[in-house]
Amino acid sequence: MIPYLSIIIPAHNEAGRIEWSLDNLYRSFLAHYLKPYEVIVVENGSEDHTELVVYGLLDKYPNLYMIDLLQAGKGLAVRTGMLEASGEWRLMADVDWSMDPHWIPSLLPDGGDGFDVCITTRNGPSALRLNEPYYRHAAGLCFNWLVRQITGLPFSDTQSGFKAFSAAAADDIFRRCHVDGWAFDVEALYIAMLRMYTIKQIPITWQAYEGSKVRVLRDSYRMLRDVLAIRRTVDRATVQPLERFA
Questions:
Q1: Torsion angle in degrees (nearest 10) through CA of 191, 193, 197, 200
Q2: How far does Cα 166 stand from its chain's mean position?
Q3: Long-range pairs for 104-111 at CB < 8 Å and ≥24 separation?
Q4: Whole-prediction pTM value?
Q5: What gap in Å lies between CA 208 and CA 96, rounded to an integer?
Q6: DSSP letter (8 states) at residue 102
């Protein structure tokens, strides 16, 4: 049976919390979810035996699969998971579940909702950030402003780690992506915008936890460098609007 929902979780050096992450997902959401699903953990270049921990959990949780990559990179992990997944909808999720799993249905079509991509935002009057250090919030706002100036993306938050793509959109967008690092979200959304996919953005409650792999100064520089490269290197000759929008 083709799953309706694929949940893709990139995991780099997450041996200490991947079991908690999966238990949280299954206990609080999937245990009550009625549609067919699969969960894909994409281990990427870990040095703490994350892959052995996940391997030991494959029989514990139903429809759990692992992809083991030698190279690190969140963008690489998400891209691989999106293209290997078989669900009608494909959700990328951070291992720390800073967005509670009960939000997942909000990212999926409900009745007459018509969209190809749904992203979450931690900014705006209806969104809520909990326990986030001020300097990290400020850095995120500055980065988002630069992203909007450089790419023309209109979204208040491109970096929230929870996004859903229809199968058609995921296959089309991620096969065109090349960024392996943190700025992969910008590349994917930039391509989605050029392809004229319908993108929905919803505000969420977001909880900051210890253990983030992002290092603000180092990674902000790398992400900005990647964003500038995205604007230059995405081939507009091949990334044309879909024929139905022509």
A1: 120
A2: 13
A3: 104/5, 104/7, 104/29, 106/202, 106/204, 107/162, 107/163, 107/164, 107/202, 108/5, 108/164
A4: 0.90
A5: 9
A6: G
3-state secondary structure of 128: strand
pLDDT value for 157: 95
Report the residue count for the chain: 246
List, in order of start, the domains of the chain with CATH numbers.
5-241 (3.90.550.10)
Q: Which residue has the tokens 């024929």?
A: 243
Token pair recorded at residue 160 = 């929230």
- Can you tell me whether residue 83 is helix, strand or coil? helix
The Cα angle at residue 194 between residues 162 and 40, in degrees rounded to 5: 30
**Whole-angstrom Cα distance, residue 93 to residue 212?**
14
Q: Using one digit for the tens of pLDDT, what is the confidence trace for 223-236?
A: 888 888 887 777 56
CA neighbor of 13 nearest in space, from 85, 69, 90, 62 = 69
